[in-house]
């Protein structure tokens, strides 16, 4: 009868190296491989097992012995009321040292609990305790940063190009300030990339949210809002710690089962098999050189100018996607008209262009129509009323002049200031 059991272990204080020199060159192989244990007792009551590679586990005088393939007793465990299976602290034979061994029937895609219960690998570090003592939720840092990792550069020197997908969703136009020549816009960004230098472990199929202290260790793209007043950086944004950073597996079948220093089995994924994504919502006031010459029949074209600030930026290939949920703002109809990315001075220069088309209907009703009507009344009074009503003509002209003056002041106070003459200026001068 075959009993599929896996034996894993870790020596405490390298006890096996001290007491079993025969195994010095094989210790990693012994304790970091999967064993197939075969029942070989001659009687029903015998409890003896042998690994495929020759090691044996025998019950002798109420004590379990883990013997080497050379017949040398290595570890012992008093039977007592303990079950053999599961995570146990064994005694090193002829020593006061201890060794932790785990005997379980788990496959390479399962996590072994301390009591030998086997869990699907996706239950490891899924933020829910599934083992009796919650050991499946211990040591759950997902990102392994190798020695020598440089978080200031985006890719290894051996990699030619890093592909970075950058998506911008325009959410709201919060303000158009004619005094400071700025437009204040709220937008959401999502950036995706692969960092082949990293290794990941215990990932979930659906969603892997990364803790702040973990993603702060790795390279994160820094975008500079070039045409803002203080040339703002996203990495220094006060809300940057609210970033949503996720890990997504490109291929869920490519993983390597290994055992950590704490000797719980983990499931490792190469950096090339995991996509990093980072989502943020920002609000910035971008400078726009408004042109008011055609006011109020003007159409303003403004840009969000964004630079990817990174070492080796010219090796980063930006795949830009832009969408808009912008609605009308005040008298403007907002349109996303163009977006592009190009290399300028070895840096990725991103441009998002929006067009603000003014609806002149309100000004037609409260400015053009009243001034035109008053001008017509004034001219009709002057040319079609006889001199016998001279006092009435003076009264009408005076009233018209004062009303136009009042409108003139009101309109000019509401118009954006400029050093050049606008179309509205010409209209008001002619009608005045």
Q: What's the layout of helices and strands?
A:
Blueprint: E1 6-11, H1 15-19, H2 27-31, E2 37-39, E3 49-51, E4 56-60, E5 63-67, E6 73-78, E7 86-92, E8 98-104, E9 110-112, E10 118-120, E11 143-144, E12 162-177, E13 182-193, E14 199-201, H3 212-215, E15 222-225, E16 244-249, E17 256-259, E18 265-270, E19 274-287, E20 299-309, E21 316-324, E22 332-344, E23 347-358, H4 361-384, H5 390-414, H6 423-431
Parallel strand pairs: 12-21
Antiparallel strand pairs: 1-8, 2-3, 3-4, 4-5, 5-6, 6-7, 7-8, 9-10, 11-14, 12-13, 13-19, 14-18, 15-20, 16-19, 17-18, 20-23, 22-23
Helix pairs in contact: 4-5
Concise synopsis of the structure shown:
The protein is of the alpha+beta class. The chain has helices at 15-19, 27-31, 212-215, 361-384, 390-414, 423-431; strands spanning 6-11, 37-39, 49-51, 56-60, 63-67, 73-78, 86-92, 98-104, 110-112, 118-120, 143-144, 162-177, 182-193, 199-201, 222-225, 244-249, 256-259, 265-270, 274-287, 299-309, 316-324, 332-344, 347-358. It is 17% helix and 37% strand.
Approximate shape: rod-shaped
Estimate percent helicity: 10-25%
User: Can you count the helices?
Assistant: 6
The topology string of helices and strands comes to EHHEEEEEEEEEEEEEHEEEEEEEEEHHH
Counted beta strands: 23
Proportion of residues in β-strands? 35-45%
Mean pLDDT: 80
Low-confidence stretches: 1-6, 8-46
Q: Radius of gyration from the CA trace? A: 38 Å
Major β-sheet profile: 8 strands, antiparallel
